[in-house]
UniProtKB/TrEMBL annotation:
Annotated protein name in UniProt: Gliding motility lipoprotein GldD
Domain of life: Bacteria
NCBIfam families listed in its UniProt record: GldD_lipo
Keyword field: Lipoprotein
Amino acid sequence: MLSPKIKLSDLRLNRLFCLFLVPFLFACEPEYTPKPKGYNRIDLMPAKYRPLQEKHPYKFEYSAYAKILRDSSRLSEPHWINIYYPAHKANVQLTYKALNNNPKTFNSLVEDARKLTSKHQIKAYSIDEAQIRTPNGNTAFVFELSGEVPSQFQFYVSDSTNHFLRGALYFRTATANDSLAPVIEYVKKDVVHLLNTLEWTDVKTGKTLGKTKR
């Protein structure tokens, strides 16, 4: 029979062994870390532009990665077109109106453009407005809309006497605007380039009508 002294020593050794073993058992458990929410990868090509070839009362340079599509909606008019980005399902809708040197028509179109923008106030966090004076003498107003709105960027440009062009950016996708932010900024830069290269033309001859005088 073993003496009590030996039994007590063995018991102490067992306790020490367990104390050292338990931390190692827990240390072997894999540590769980929640994965951050991922978004689809968006590849953006370097900016590249080409001139509008179709005959309209206007011409400009637009993205070489976009297509010009005729507006096929029920209310469309002859010089309404879409600048469509297939890779991003982004669409800039352009609507044109002739002013015929009529101040009432100009004021009415400006009011309509602002009303169409203000319709998004319910969902928009903010609407920032800026005025741009283009190299060809036109005045453009751009509106940047924040939040889950269907149109994130709108504008209108005119010489206030003969021509009025309005544009609005839309996406043919249900992706949230936060995820689309890089594409929205990308298209915004293209629109600014469009405005800076915009010229009014004679539809019949295709000739530029010259800079707007102020």
